Amino acid sequence: MTLFRDMRGLAVLALPLALVSLPVWAEEGGAEKGGLPQLDVSLFPEQIFWLAITFALLYALMAGVALPRVAKTQTNRKQVIATEIEAARAANEKAKLTVASVEKSLAEARNKAREHVNEMLAQVGTETASAQSVQEKELLRQLHRAEADIAVTREAALNAIHSDAADLAAVAVEKLVGFKLQVRA
User: Fold this and answer.
1) Nearest 10 degrees: Cα torsion 148, 153, 154, 158
2) Distance between CA atoms of 113 and 60, rounded to whole angstroms?
3) Beta strand segments in the chain, E
4) Under a CB-based contact definition with an 8 Å cutoff, are residues 37 and 30 in contact?
5) Are 60 and 3 a contacting pair, CB within 8 Å?
6) Which of 64, 78, 96, 105 could lock 3 by a disulfide, CB 3.0 to 4.6 Å apart?
7) What value, to the nearest 5°, has the Cα angle with vertex 126 and ends 129 and 120?
8) What is the rounded distance in angstroms from the CA atom of residue 78 to the CA atom of residue 41?
9) What single string gives the DSSP state of each residue in 135-148?
10) Distance (Å, rounded) from C-alpha 27 to C-alpha 61?
11) Would you state the pLDDT for residue 8?
12) How large is the average pLDDT for residues 46-50?
């Protein structure tokens, strides 16, 4: 800060000197001579003097004001970047933990779903086996009933065929021989 105060003092001194030299230059007829004042050899010492003062003033301003501010800005920016990187790392770790937690929950849910599906399949298998057993018993019962009905119907049909055959034979004998046979029932 003392350098900044020194630069203010230097600027306060340099400004009046610059203003004082303007009327001198105007009195000498600087622009009326027809040439460029920078190339006038008689003005070189004065130009070198002002060059040195201006250079010193600008150097002091850069060294005392601009460069410290740039350095401060860079330092602040580095701190902000470091803070943001640390926050990003923390967020990344938190995200990894969350992903791990979600994957664990998904694995547990899949296992529960598999168990539930297996239980349902076992229950359906048991119910299917039970229903199939009941149907098989019912079909066997109906089969036995149908076989019994078929046997009765066959017996009746055979009896009817025998009876009809006996009647037919009696009619044939009667027509051939001429007398009537007695058929036993």
Assistant:
1) 140
2) 77
3) none
4) yes
5) yes
6) 64
7) 135
8) 51
9) HHHHHHHHHHHHHH
10) 32
11) 64
12) 92
Structure confidence by residue, pLDDT tens digits, 97-148: 999 999 999 999 999 999 999 999 999 999 999 999 999 999 999 999 999 9
Alpha-carbon distance of 185 to 160, in angstroms, equals 11
149 CB-side CA count, 13 A:
6
Would you put residue 29 in left (φ > 0), alpha (ψ -120 to 50) or beta? left
Rounded mean pLDDT, 56-74: 94
Residues 5, 65 contacting (CB under 8 angstroms): no
Joined together, the tokens standing for residue 60 give 């002091």
Residue 4 DSSP symbol: H
Question: CA-CA distance, 112 to 185, in Å (whole number)?
Answer: 77
What is the radius of gyration, based on Cα positions, of the chain?
A: 63
Question: Tokens 């019912």 map to which residue?
Answer: 138
CA 147 to chain centre: 68
